[in-house]
Amino acid sequence: MDDQHDHRAEIRDFLASRRAKITPEQAVLPTSGRRRVPGLRREEVAVLAGVSTEWYTRLEKGHISGVSEDVLSAVAQALQLDEDERTYLFDLARAARPARRTPSRRRDVDVPPRIQWLLDSITLSAAFVRNGRLDVIAHNTLGRALHVPMFDSPTTDRRGRPNFARFHFLDDSSRDFFVDWESGAAATVALLRAEAGREPHDRTLRELIGELSTVSRDFRTLWAAHDVRIRHDGVKRLQHPEVGELELTYQSVDLPVSQRAVHDLSLYTAEPGSTSEERVKLLASLAATSNAAEEPTDQRR
Prior knowledge:
By secondary structure, this protein is of the alpha+beta class. The protein is 50% helix and 12% strand. The protein has a 5-stranded antiparallel β-sheet.
């Protein structure tokens, strides 16, 4: 199956899945009789978007190249897409435009020293940098100590870098580590779906998605839902093997490491005065002691 066919299938399935989620009542449309399909019909979306049924049907079959931004915005509004879903739709349209040259394979980008200095200066929050494929490409001491089951997992790559998606779906110990495993798994897949829209020609990403789809039924089910997530923040509960259960707030912000790829800086922080803060401080102390013990003698003098 060629890339163009795959891309049309992505557009078709995404639009159909969003259409199925909206009821006539939510769209403020009159209803009568028994409906054979969940959500809206194609002709109803066409009316809401101000286009012909034939035109919308063609769009939902994946023929999105050349569609104007105004029309895409009208379709996004008709389908009640949120900001992340709207961005994903526009990414799909951009990727469908004829390329002037064969897209090159995207290279991995290491963080510059100044970013590692920034991470190392953060001592009471776990901090790490991840790329769009959810590889952890840099971290501070507490970031590694907090996610030690993932760093020690056999799912790390040949450079020893962990990947959130591989750990979630290919290592059973993740279910013990992530207290809310199901919601974390759904968010992980939604983040990968957004990256697939941004970078449809990323061979490494496609290989990752293919691997997870082949091995994990949970991943296949979540991937088929076509949910999208770009912004990543909230509350995370972890069952840490050294300090017990932790409840942390996390926030991810864009990090302009390179124009070739998306990178996020993620911070995990405990509420001041909470039991989790005490446990995070203990974990930081344990990690610092362990690091000091591992340093060569001449570096400690």
